[in-house]
Design a protein that fits this description.
The chain is mainly alpha-helical. It has one domain.
Length: 393
């Protein structure tokens, strides 16, 4: 990763600590917008289920405040500290996933949560953070060896273990895919030979196409033997045929997007959130945003994420060492992949995977760990020194 020296005209001699106020503003704006849209989306369902229209808002606000405090703390700690904690972080992630077996709590048909003192916790989010820290530490330690096949296998091994455990124990395919996507992004940036990645992408695409083909063959033979993921693929290919079951949520999401028009119906005026889209405050919140704020609001949110990614890339390019750069690349890959997957699901571009929209969808564990990751990026940014230029020059 190239090291650069930034220059800025200031009136004092010496070096200044770099603070990315643009990134901080974008994060805070997304959090505030997320809370507003969460209340708008969930108030009707929360009033029916809990007798409190602000039930989901209060829980998310609490997690957001804690997350901001964590982000502040992590941002002032030296990021090199996390390199020394890579192995314990991986071990902790493994233990938390294994704890799902005896202590996991089932919710909405999935056993993916642990409860500590009445607070829910999803180990998949810890696995994503552990993947970033472990992969960054290994890439730095391997150095040029990461370009070799053996080096790449060593980097991929811990995330593969976490991904396999997430899939087998929690049946969380989407989180398993995100874990693998994170490490793939980090290795892709650290290895200049892109040919092997092109071949890998072709192989993954071919495997996906084969899976879809085999699903269709199985459906023609005996549709009732398909598992729920097979049914999701069929519903993705022909949502109208599954409008009353598997594709119901997706179709209602598309109706919401289409009815929003250019500027939307207005904040709080969504019809689809009134029981038509199940759990709309989770992975389908973007469709309500489109319905209430229209195409204009949707584009603004996408632009905010693009600005965030741009600032991440800027910080990674100017990081003072490889470990810091890889931490930022990992965070970039995590948020970018999750945003892309969420938008693709909402628009039925890919089968429904249950991926939430970062900083906006409901989920205390998610926002807490995302803000932890932003704190890591800000810590790396603090390591950048702005070289002062004499104002008399």
């Amino acid at each position: 990763m190239p090291e650069r020296v930034l220059k800025r005209s200031v009136r004092v001699q010496g070096a200044e600590v770099f603070r990315d106020y643009t990134l901080i503003f974008v994060v805070l704006f997304l959090l505030a917008l997320g809370l507003v849209m969460l209340y708008s989306t969930s108030s009707y369902e929360a009033a029916l289920q809990f007798g409190d229209s602000a039930y989901y808002l209060k829980k998310q606000l609490f997690s957001t405040v804690i997350g901001l405090l964590v982000m502040l703390l992590v941002s002032v700690l030296p990021y090199r500290l996390w390199g020394r904690l890579a192995t314990p972080a991986f071990a902790l992630a493994v233990i938390l996933i294994l704890a799902i077996i005896p202590f996991g709590v089932e919710s909405r048909g999935a056993k993916r949560w642990l409860y500590f003192f009445g607070v829910s916790f999803q180990p998949a989010e810890a696995a994503k953070l552990a993947t970033i820290v472990v992969a960054a530490a290994m890439i730095e330690r391997l150095g040029s060896l990461v370009k070799t096949l053996r080096g790449m296998i060593l980097v991929f091994l811990p995330p593969v273990i976490l991904s396999f455990m997430l899939y087998k124990i929690t049946r969380n395919l989407s989180s398993a895919m995100i874990v693998m996507a994170i490490v793939a992004c980090m290795v892709f940036v650290s290895v200049p030979d892109y040919k092997r990645f092109v071949l890998l992408a072709v192989a993954v695409a071919a495997a996906g196409a084969l899976w879809i083909f085999m699903t269709l063959r199985s459906a023609q033979a005996a549709e009732d033997t398909l598992n729920f993921r097979g049914n999701r693929i069929l519903a993705w290919l022909d949502p109208q045929a599954y409008a009353d079951d598997t594709a119901f949520q997706t179709l209602q999401s598309l109706y919401a997007i289409g009815s929003g028009g250019l500027f939307g119906k207005g904040l709080g005026q969504s019809m689809q959130k009134l029981g038509y889209i199940p759990e709309a405050q989770n992975d389908m919140i973007f469709s309500i945003i489109c319905e209430e704020l229209g195409l204009f609001g949707a584009i603004c949110i996408i632009l905010l994420f693009i600005i965030m990614i741009w600032r991440f890339i800027f910080i990674a390019n100017n990081a003072v060492d490889l470990f810091g750069a890889m931490l930022v690349v990992g965070v970039t890959g995590h948020i970018a992949v999750q945003v892309i997957l969420n938008l693709a699901v909402v628009t039925n571009t890919i089968p429904n995977t249950g991926v939430t929209l970062p900083f906006i969808s409901y989920g205390g564990t998610s926002v807490l760990f995302l803000l932890f990751e932003v704190g890591l990026v800000l810590s790396v940014a603090r390591g950048i020194r702005l070289k002062a230029i004499d104002s008399t020059q």
